[in-house]
Structures are given as C-alpha cells and as structure tokens.
Amino acid sequence: MERNGGLLVAGTTSDAGKSLLTAGICRWLHRRGVNVAPFKAQNMSNNSAVAIEPDGTGGEIGRAQALQAAACGLAPSVRFNPVLLKPGSDRRSQVIVLGQAVGHIGAANYAEIKDRLRGTVLETLADLRRRHDVVICEGAGSPAEINLRAMDLANMGLARAANLPVIVVGDIDRGGVFASLFGTVALLDAEDQALVSGFVINKFRGDAGLLRPGVEQLTQLTGRPTFGVLPWSYDLWLDAEDSLAYDGRVLGRPGPARGSQWLRVAVVRLPRLSNATDAEALACEPGVQVRLTVEAADLADVDLVVIPGSKSTVDDLAWLRERGLADAIVRHAKAGRPVLGICGGFQMLAERIDDEVESRRGTVAGLGLLPVDIAFAERKTLALPEGTAFDGVPVKGYEIHHGQVTRGAQQPFIRLPDGTGEGAVAGNVSGTHWHGAFESDQFRRAYLTEAARLAGRTGFQVAPDTSFAALRERTVDVLGDLVEEHLDTEALWRLIEDGAPAGLPTITVGLR
C-alpha cells in the first residue's frame, strides 16, 4: 500500500472525539481543495445510515462515516465503512460487510472470520487510496485494548498494514487525559509505537495556557508533540454515534419557544437503541425539549412520547414491559396524547409481531396501539424513499429494517408516489419505518403542530425557518474551524504527506 496521503485518528477511549476530529480534519482538507475521503475499517454501532452506490445498490454504514463523507463533500459509500457490527445483545452482533448483512457472530467466534474481514478492509482501503489524494481513517475504541490486539482490524492492525501515521485524541473532560495519552502509547509494542506520531487534547474548558506544563512534560516523556488543544463546543451535538452518550440528557440546544408554550418530548432510551439521531431532528426545533429516558415516571407529564428504533424489537419490547414503560405508553395514548413509533418503535406499537429472524421468539403481542401486524423477513430492506404526508407535505427518509407490515392500517402515515401508503396512524398514535423523516423540515413542522394540538399545547408554535440540513452543514463547518484554529495544521499536513517520523522513541514501562 501507499505510504503518503493517509492518517489514522485513534482515541484513548470510546467517545474521546475520534469521529468528530476525523470529520473536522476532512472538512479542513476539503476546504483546501484536497480530494479526501473518510474510512473506518470496523465500526460497532446501531446508529447507521443508508448509502446508495453509483450502480444503484444499497448498503448501510456507520452514521459517523456519513457525516464524515459530508465533510468531504461526498455522498455516503459502503467503502467508507466496510465492516459494521450491530449489537443485538451483549454477546451477539449482526455483521454488515460492504453494506450487506452476512450473518451474526459472538465474541467467541469472531476470530473465525477476522482473516476474511481483514482482506476486505485492506482491499477497500487500497481502492480508496487509489481514488483519493488523502484518506483519513478513524480508529475504534482504543488501540491499547491489548486483549484484542491480535484480532485488531481498525487501530494499530490497520496502521501497521497500511503504514499509516497515527494521532491519539484524549478527552480532558473525563479527567486523567495525560495519563491516558501516555498509557495508550506505553501499552503498545515497539512496532506499533513507531507509528504513533502525536496527540490531540479534546473538550478543554478554560485557558489552554494552563495545560502548557503538562503538554511539555508529555512531549518530554514520549518524544511526541501535541498538535493542539480543541476547546469544548456547545454547537456539536448532532449525529452522535454512540447512543449511550445521550443517556438521561436533554438533547440539543433548541432556541427559545416562538409561542407561549414549549412542547415536551420523551424518547425512550431502549437498551438496543438504533438511530437515536432521529430524535435530534425534533430537538433542533425552537421550543421543543427532547429528553431520553428509561423511567416510566418521566412519561407522566410529557406531551409526546417517542419509541425510537431498535436492533432487537421483541427483546426491547419485553424490556418496556419489565420497566413499566409499556403501561405508561399505553396510558399516555389512551389519554389522547400523541405517541410516535419509528422503525422498531413502530413495530412495537403493532398488534402482533412475528419474529423468526432477530429474537426468534415467534409470534408475540405488540402494544396494540396501531392496527397492523409485523413479520420479520430474512432480507433487510435498505432504501431512500420519498413521499408526502399531511395533505401534500414532502418527506424523505431512509429504511433499514427486517420487519415488514403484513396487515396494513386503513390510514397510512406517509403516501408513496405509486399511491400506496407507509406506516400507520390511529388517532393520536403514529408509526413509520422511515428513519430520517423528521429531517424534512416541512414534515417535521407539520407533525409537531399536530402533536401539539393533540397534547393541548395551543400556545406552541413551530419556527418557519429551521433547516436541519443547514444545522448539519454548520456542524461540519464548526469542526473544520476548530481544526484550523486550534491545531498545528502545517505539522498535521506534513504528517499526512510524509508519514510517521523516523526514530520516534519507544516507551518501556515495567514493574520495579
């Protein structure tokens, strides 16, 4: 493989900032006129996006890689994330290779397929490097997971195979960032250390000058520079890849209510939550407060309850019942207040679910709030559909699901161009298989207006000028600005062009 034109962004932990830093570097390079592409060899996430290739075939990739593609000015492609693992339980994940589901694996038998996956990863990266001047790769988790090093496809295993220089990003907001950065390098063997070329400190609040003594000592200890300190930014909340980062939080930074009342939304934080980013589109609206919750009590006084997507619909439905959330949702609906189900959440609202694919539990009773039946098919639906709702309001979305409607409702949620319908509406309860539908601004406003009416929030008003696409574009621009303003971009460019410097010292740490 080529040496020049590549970089791997690794992290001290999950959620250290790898995804957003990769997107920021991509946007910075794209602004310079560089033909750049993102790459994540192996991702583990239930937040995915649909990519349609030039030949019309579809596939799914990690949502972070779709954001990184946008930062590069590119359409999403399965080549940007050749291996995606979607956890359906604590021990088992669905395997997506080049966009297509190929089966399920557990941790114990992952080793059986790693050589085949390694070949796919390296061939895909080599093809990207032929097509683009620069490829910015994102690692997974931490490269210092020494128990996983022998099977590694995404961190130092990729860097060694592709001869990529590596920078390590650490999240200072978690504390212990210098120990984490030093320890990450120290736990690697000498060959891996030779590619680790420097550090970035992320999410700092305050005067960066206070860090200078620590940064200087880190350089003395490791022989490696810190390329910069990125400040905490309140503008970065869209497209979080790890849905656990949402837990218990109010999403977004919505502007003040345009009317006299706010609309309060509770999104159930399912154990196997997928595509939680659907809630972000609601949270971008002024006057809409969106909170993720696992407590039935939190549903008692909200206006709208949303059941989002799930990687394991039947198992998460059982969890709803165990937590008392199912009863709370039914009470909310029977009180005439709005309930919305998206993808797996839509399936849970059905009367019956027949699942011999994900949970293999056969036929189970749904919540019975929508007059539909669902059956799971072996082949996954992947599409970028378009339609209309609310008397002609345009809506677009993306579909990633095994569940199929086998008995449809008389009133669909969305009308399709061929005259058929999608999803279902029964009074104050609505459901759709479409992710991303609420990124369509007119559709989102129409739905929230109707939800407010059903909830009795007569003082709520939607904003006529909120653009979700503009907010997402602003996100990648902010990331590019942070890289340009706070990192040593000249040194970063030399690293991308020339590879890891020769003669980087090896850190040896032993018991005394």
Automatic annotation (TrEMBL):
One of its GO terms (biological process) is cobalamin biosynthetic process. The keyword rRNA processing does not apply. Keywords: Cobalamin biosynthesis, Glutamine amidotransferase. InterPro entries: Class_I_gatase-like, CobQ/CobB/MinD/ParA_Nub-bd_dom, CobQ_GATase1, CobQ_N, CobQ_synth, GATase_3, P-loop_NTPase. Residues 264-443 form the CobB/CobQ-like glutamine amidotransferase domain. Pathway: Cofactor biosynthesis; adenosylcobalamin biosynthesis. The keyword Secreted does not apply. Residues 8-236 form the CobQ/CobB/MinD/ParA nucleotide binding domain. It holds the Pfam family CbiA. The active site is at 343 (nucleophile), 435. GO terms for molecular function: ABC-type vitamin B12 transporter activity; catalytic activity. Belongs to the CobB/CobQ family. CobQ subfamily. Catalyzes amidations at positions B, D, E, and G on adenosylcobyrinic A,C-diamide. NH(2) groups are provided by glutamine, and one molecule of ATP is hydrogenolyzed for each amidation. This is Cobyric acid synthase. The lineage of its organism: Bacteria, Bacillati, Actinomycetota, Actinomycetes, Micromonosporales.
